[in-house]
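User: Hey, my collaborator sent me this sequence without any context and asked if I could get a structure. I don't really work with proteins. Can you help?
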Amino acid sequence: MKILEIVGTNAPKSYNRTLLAYMQKRYGSANKEISLLEINNIPLFNEAFFTQERPAVVQDLYDQVDTADGLIISTPEYDHAITAALKSVMEWLSCEKELMLQKPVMLVGTSLGVQGTSRAQDNLRQILNSPGLAAKVMAGNEFLLGLGKQKFNEKGQLIDQGTIAFLDECFDQFLELTQAN
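Assistant: No problem. I've predicted the 3D structure and written it out in structure-token form, which is a compact way to encode the shape of the chain:
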């Protein structure tokens, strides 16, 4: 099984990247290849690119999403929404017909505040449900990690056992969704 993790920010330091790296180490195995995709080099979406040659980094995005059995997208929350960089990636993905159609997606996120990324995840869920994407977004088991700075140790490991147990439960549900697809 191939799982692609998408870091939903182009910021150089992010607890969302830390969360995905933790998940990659915890859940990756011989039968579960988990790779991490950075979006910081993907250009801002512009329709003019369709009259030109597609940027290689966008083609790489398409190829990685296409070959993945499922996606895990980690989003920070900026002003109650996803980042502009992640929105642009979603716009790129919506232009490749049926690339995301019924692709299993797990949403996760962490923030410095107490609410986690609840509004950003709602925003992203709405985008992923749009006709251009039509992904199969995992319902329930939303992983919203508030106070992210306090939840990781200096090695990038989650330190709260209840949080780890809930993440394990969410990931197991994601695997069931992906295998059923």
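In plain terms: The chain has one domain: 2-180. You can pass these tokens on to your collaborator as they are.
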